[in-house]
User: Fold these one by one.
Assistant:
Number 1:
Amino acid sequence: MPSYDENGNNPKSLIERGEELYNNRSLSTNGLSCASCHGTDGQSGYQATFNQPFPHPVAMGANMFGMETVHADEMVQLCMVAPMAAEPLDWESEDLAALAAYVVNAQQRLAGEADGQ
Ligand code: HEC
């Protein structure tokens, strides 16, 4: 079971922890942070698919990993392994939950559904 809420009801502290990690270059082996590609506000630099609530189809998931749809935590792991050239995070980890919570929050801000966080 993921320890974040894909509907966006996540504690502010978890989202803030995710934002820190999102900007942290030491998560990758190639000097990139998530924000290097996706923007420091966490909601720019995405394809149009990011507008949809998770789970949803993402071209990278289909093309590289054969996944029809991806959950937010799965998408974090795909980007950890492929563009970040790193090991996946522990599935039960706080770091993965925090990044997934932040990604869901960014998705909802992009779609105009944020609840003020
Ligand atoms: C080198 C650039 C790069 C880095 C670094 C990177 N990504 Fe990605 N990310 C991509 C690409 C490319 C896609 C796939 C877009 C597609 O297939 O439509 C993607 C897709 C995504 C999506 C899905 C967008 C959607 O359509 O829903 C999310 C969420 C995401 N990345 C989060 C992250 C997170 C979190 C990190 C850091 C752990 C990260 N990315 C690091 C390039 C990057």
Number 2:
Amino acid sequence: MLALALLSGCDQALPDDADARVRHGQVLMTRYQCGSCHVVPGVAQADGRVGPSLARFGRRSYIAGEVPNRPEALARWIAAPQSVVPGTPMPDMGVPDRDARDMAAYLLSLQ
Ligand code: HEC
């Protein structure tokens, strides 16, 4: 497990349970500066107004009004929004799948 964490290049312990994923996702939201475009509760200086607020996102039925809000779909959206809804104003940011999954876990924890 430790070797895997080191190999992955991530400076955090490898998230191996749901809570750790959520916490890691919260840290990543700051690192990827999602808050420059979104209000995100629990993330410092996340007060952007370019995109919609992500408050209580765990209660949302749809992503971008189009895709049912499920963990896999949300992770896909964060990794490559243009592939989910072509032409969406949210840019592809080159987020790796694993980081996208952890940020999806964080957003879905916002009730
Ligand atoms: C350059 C601005 C910008 C950045 C940076 C950005 N987003 Fe977005 N995001 C948007 C816009 C604009 C939308 C609305 C897209 C639409 O409705 O088609 C959006 C939509 C979303 C949605 C769906 C919101 C809803 O109401 O359905 C989620 C979830 C989301 N972004 C997560 C993220 C995450 C996580 C990050 C960081 C990895 C991020 N965004 C970074 C601009 C941005």
